Amino acid sequence: MDLNQVTIPATDVATATEFYKKLGLKLIVDALPRYVRFECPAGNSTLSVHEVEEVQQGDWMVVYFETEDLDKRVIQLQKQGVVFDELPEDRPWLWREAGLRDPGGNKVILYSAGKNRKYPPWRISEEKQTNQSIEIERKFLVNSEAFKKEAAHSTRIVQGFLSTTPERTVRIRVKGEQGFMTIKGRSNEAGTSRFEWEKEISAEEAEQLLKLCEQPIIEKTRYEVLFGDHVFEVDEFRGDNQGLTVAEIELQQEDERFDKPDWLGAEVTGEVKYYNSNLSRTPFKQW
């Protein structure tokens, strides 16, 4: 399957046509004043504009165009009279972006990302896409809140356990708008690796299954922080585990080297009391 085209609305298709031609798109279908279609100068994707009576305002839709030399391209467009709302800036998700709006108010982002467009450090591995893998991770305490300034984004997580038996923990999780069921086997002697199987389910299904889980339910905010060539997942716990913050890093090999940020504290890999399954039975406030 391939993405063919994206269609955006405009109250004045003719004005929008001149705007997108100025950006460098090639007009391949001209059905003015109702409809036009463009071809991108690189790749196979196309963009079409169709006439509507009113364009919904806001950032409900964003169109991204990739360009190799973003800063040079922005300067060229500025000389042609194109006004940018946001000048080129490096983003935490490893893209360099500049923002503007087309004549209809639709948000447009010009960016450069290189391999990070499709292969960022946090890309889901092929093993995880087949639902099962051997999970290799190390766990650390956190000694400050400096990680929050470095985080690419954060997500609220609510999770519980249908089973906390070490041989087969069964976890139900709501992460943002998604639901997951995860089964994990017993950890190896070092506590760094164990079997993991995961399947995405609807958030509604996860909410129903959480009602069957052992109490208390775990609540936390997860921050994803890129440092060096790895991503740290930093969990700031709420509720009965308020005051506990733990960072995890997932590795490809148990002896893999990685850079450590200043806010990373003592390692607690393999310490059972820091397992989420244990925190549901013996929360931090009872320690």
Please tag this protein with its features.
287 residues, mainly beta, 2,3-Dihydroxybiphenyl 1,2-Dioxygenase, domain 1, Hypothetical Protein Pfu-838710-001, 4-stranded mixed sheet, 17 strands
Characterise the protein shown here.
With 287 residues, the protein is mainly beta. The chain folds into 2 domains: 5-117, 2,3-Dihydroxybiphenyl 1,2-Dioxygenase, domain 1; 126-286, Hypothetical Protein Pfu-838710-001 (Beta Barrel), CATH 2.40.320. It is built from 6 helices and 17 strands. The strands form 3 sheets. It has an 8-stranded antiparallel barrel. Strands 1-4-3-2 form a 4-stranded mixed beta sheet, covered by helices on one side. The chain has a 4-stranded mixed beta sheet with strand order 5-8-7-6, with helices on one face. A hairpin with a 3-residue loop joins β2 and β3 (35-39). The longest helix has 11 residues, at 13-23. The chain starts with a strand and ends in a 6-residue tail after the last helix. The mean pLDDT is 89.
